[in-house]
Amino acid sequence: MKLIVIDTETSDLPERGGSMIELAWITLASPDWKPTSSYEKYIQYSGPISVTAQAQNHIRADRLTEKYGAVLREQAIMALLNEVEPDSFLVAHNSDFDSKFLPELKNPWICTYRVSKCIWPEAPGHSNQVLRYWLDIEPDLSIAANIKQRAPHQALYDVATTVGILQKMLTRHTPAELNQMTSQPRLLKCIEFGKHKGTEFKNIPRDYLVWLRGQPVLDTDLKYTLDSILHG
User: Fold this and answer.
1) pLDDT per residue over 181-222, tens digit each?
2) pTM, to two decimals
3) Could you give the residue ranges of the DSSP H alpha helices within 73-200?
4) Which candidate among 33, 53, 164, 232 keeps its CA 20 to 30 Å from the CA of 153?
């Protein structure tokens, strides 16, 4: 069995028409879940990159050309499909996001972000970098150390961070269990944003919850929590 840990960097959010501009992955093989291969490529792209995206991934549009080694999206997807086996699990830290840019992939996903909220609810946060320091993880890039210097929010660096988080999870759970945690909705105790941030849902005015449920972009756990409160 393989676990293929993936990260995409994009020109914008999917709901704003973003495109994938970098793809990276590290493959882990059973039974010891050690890295066996890696991949990292810029994707050829000639459209705009939002300022918000640039501020996060620091990818310059002039690097997304064949001259600088960027490949066609179809080439990168084919390489990834060749890596995936029928029993492989795909892994990402926020798979809801990455999977939107990889619709060709049909294997089940493990979302380390969702799972981390289940098994480490006491963590001070659940982003890649917060968990990295909270779990005392040093991203291991030795499998691809000859490619380039890397920093957070470059795709392969983020993959290596997610690999470290995933390996911690695999000391307690099987891949199938992590996939089940990913797919099952979870009741939230407190809201994590907005004017009621930090307030338990049971103490938030009902009219605000009704308004919030009507918003177009809500994650699975938030929808599940709101529906449980509003509809019993």
Assistant:
1) 999 888 888 888 889 988 999 999 999 999 999 998 888 889
2) 0.85
3) 73-83, 95-100, 112-119, 128-134, 155-170, 175-183
4) 33
Tell me the residue type at 93: H
Would you report the helix, strand and coil content of the chain in percent, each value rounded to 5?
Answer: 45, 15, 40
User: What's the rounded Cα separation, in Å, for the pair 75 and 81?
Assistant: 10
**In angstroms, what is the C-alpha Rg of the chain?**
19
Contact 21, 61 (CB under 8 A): no
The burial class, CB within 10 Å (0-12 / 13-18 / 19+), for 31 is: exposed
CA 27 to chain centre: 15
Distance CA 159, CA 139 (A): 9
Class of domain 2-183: alpha beta
Domain definitions of the chain by residue range: 2-183, 186-232
- Alpha-helix residue ranges (DSSP H) falling in 120-205: 128-134, 155-170, 175-183
